[in-house]
Amino acid sequence: MPQLSQRAASLGTENAFVVLAEVDALIRAGKDVISFCIGQPDFATPVHIQDAAVAAVRGGKHGYTPSAGIDELRAAAAASMSALRGIPISADEVVVGAGAKPFIAYAMASVTDYGAGDEVIFPVPGFPIYESQCKALGAMPVGLPLRESRKFVFDPDELARRITPKTRLLILNTPHNPTGGLLTRANLEAIAEVLRRHPQVWVYADEIYSKLVYEGEFTSIAALPGMQERTIISDGASKTYAMTGWRIGFTANKTLAPVFTRWITNTESCATQVSQWAALQALTGPQAEADAMRERFRARRDLIVRLLNDVPGFSCASPGGAFYAWPNVNEACTLICAKDSEELRKRLLHEAGVAVLADIHFGPRVEGDGQHIRFSYAASESAIEAGVDRIAEFVKKNIRPPRK
Questions:
Q1: Which is higher by pLDDT, 65 or 31?
Q2: Residue 109 above 70 pLDDT?
Q3: Nearest CA to 140 among 123, 117, 162, 159?
């Protein structure tokens, strides 16, 4: 049997999809499960966006497009990103891809060399694909802890200590998955001050949740003096417009746009043309439904945080954006004699019928920060109420005397 490459053997995964498959298997077997494990809106894609896709199909728009995307969508994405961030972005700086996720790999492959010891700094906890792509592409992963005491914003001094002459890329994610944390302008200014001392470092600004902010205003590091040229802005249609399966993302960086275009030519050829026309309507058409979805998410955030804080042993900070809650469950694990958050997660799934993710699905636990689990509150209000009620009953029923 031929062997796999080291690259293939080292490639990680996104555990949300692993747990989702487990949940689906349980549901097929007849188990009643309320799932909070997957990060996608539960709303339908707005009808006017669906209609644009149908019109594209009927209009014969079935073939390849330029690898960088159709001109109309590149211009619309440039205008949308520019308006939100308050910086000039032109259409020729924008590249459209099959979702925002591929650009993580394209960025790393474009600024690091395999086996050269080039380093990528990324947030921990964080989107697991950051680390898995880093390892697969032969770069050195360097985790940067997000601490609960700092509202899940990393310490600029800790960033400064991790940057070396080999550092090539810093990943920033705001609003943040999995904690819902938000980098304020003051946070970003402190980060930019550190980076100005290290001109060799690119920034990958993962801003896919940029239009799902509930406290304060969204700020991009690209808007700060001297930062736009070295920042890869990553955004897309998936989260804002309930278009996860349409697979449309876009990035903006003047220097790397032609490089990303070549990567797309070498891999996916182009994003699906029908989805591109749908995304164009999402960006340029009525925004009322997107705004309404954001307000529903805000209400759900308030609901789930309130309910989780009533569960014995749970402590949940209110997230500033995205649609994730990240409660500390250290005390709950102690109450029910679970050794850690992963054991708690498994027991919630199999005994209470509630699916969540554990902190270890997002990187190693931050030392001294205890145990956490992640809820995606992209679920109905009734599901949130029923799911958290099941958890509360489970904890109360399973409280045990402390182990001696």
A1: 65
A2: yes
A3: 117
> Whole-angstrom Cα distance, residue 90 to residue 176?
26
Q: Is the pTM of this model over 0.85?
A: yes
**Token pair listed for 193:** 């001050």
Contact assessment for residue 256 and residue 110, using Cβ atoms and an 8 Å cutoff: yes
Beta 231-236 vs 202-206: how paired, if at all? parallel
Picking from 272, 290, 312, the residue whose alpha carbon sits closest to that of residue 393 is 312
Residues ≥6 apart with Cβ < 8 Å to 8? 136
CA dist 97 → 65, 79, 191, 264, 330 (Å) = 11, 17, 28, 7, 40
pLDDT at 385 over 80: yes
Cα 132 to Cα 11: distance, rounded to the nearest angstrom: 6
Summarised one tens digit per residue, pLDDT across range 155-213 is 999 999 999 999 999 999 999 999 999 999 999 999 999 999 999 999 999 999 999 99
How would you class 90 by CB atoms within 10 Å of its CB: exposed for 0-12, middle for 13-18, buried for 19 or more? middle
Residue in the block written with tokens 């591109």: 276
Angle at 376 (CA atoms; ends 187, 169), nearest 5 degrees: 40
Ramachandran angles phi, psi of 377, nearest 5°: -90, 25
CA 131 vs CA 128, 137, 144, 234, 240: distances in Å: 6, 10, 11, 17, 25
Q: What is the DSSP string of 335-346?
A: HTT-SSHHHHHH
**Residues 356/37, Cβ–Cβ less than 8 Å:** yes
Find, among 349, 403, 402, the residue nearest to 373 by Cα.
349
pLDDT: which is higher, 264 or 12: 264
Q: CB of 137 within 8 A of CB of 105?
A: yes
Helix (H, G, I), strand (E, B), or coil: what is residue 97? strand
Read off the pLDDT of each residue in 301-320 and give the average, rounded to a whole number.
Answer: 97
Residue ranges with strand state E in 239-389: 249-252, 324-325, 354-355, 357-358, 373-376
- The amino acid that residue 107 corresponds to is A
Neighbours of 65 (CB within 10 A): 18
CA distance 87 to 106: 23
- Measure the CA–CA gap between 189 and 205, rounded to whole angstroms: 14
Amino acid occupying residue 191: I
In this prediction, residue 402 carries a pLDDT of 65
Contact between 234 and 105 under an 8 Å Cβ cutoff? The reply is no
